Amino acid sequence: MKSKSTNTIIQYCEHCDKEVTCNIVEKYETMNSFGKEVSIFTKRAYCPHCKNELWVGELHDFNLAQRQAAWRRDNRYL
User: Fold this and answer.
1) Which of 16, 41, 52, 66 qualifies as a FRET site for 27, CA 20 to 30 Å off?
2) What tens-digit pLDDT sequence spans the chain (78 residues)?
3) H-helix or E-strand containing 57?
4) Can you tell me the distance from the alpha carbon of 36 to that of 71, in angstroms, rounded to the nearest whole number?
5) 56 within 8 A of 9, measured Cβ to Cβ
6) Rounded distance, CA 55 to CA 69, Å?
């Protein structure tokens, strides 16, 4: 599935050592969740200058909740 960029945020990039306006990229990713491969909808932020992924607490929490929900759904643990 294609990646899609929706929002922008201002975030500090430790590699560039400055605040940058970066896009939030939404995409589906396959990852290991408790020993099983699951496909989840994720949101990630990347520096527009150095292209490194930036850590954003809110996005981390969102992605973790998506991963846990996928595990519960796949294991019928609702």
Assistant:
1) 16
2) 445 556 889 999 999 999 999 989 999 999 887 788 888 999 999 999 999 999 999 999 999 999 888 888 887 876
3) helix 57-74
4) 8
5) yes
6) 21
How far apart CA 39 and CA 15 sit, in angstroms, is 29
End-to-end CA distance of the chain: 27
Torsional class of 49: left (φ above 0), alpha (ψ -120 to 50), beta (otherwise): alpha
> How many whole angstroms separate alpha carbon 39 and alpha carbon 49?
29
